[in-house]
Amino acid sequence: MSDYAKGTVEGEFCHWLIGEAVRLGLPVVVDPKSRDLARYAGATVITPNLKETAAAAGAIIDSQGLHAAVEVLLPQIGSSALLVTRGEEGMSLFEQATAERHYAAMVNEVADVTGAGDTVVGLLAVALGAGLLLRDAAAVANLAAGIAVSHHGTWAVSAAELRAAAA
Question: Can you tell me whether residue 109 is helix, strand or coil?
Answer without folding.
Answer: coil
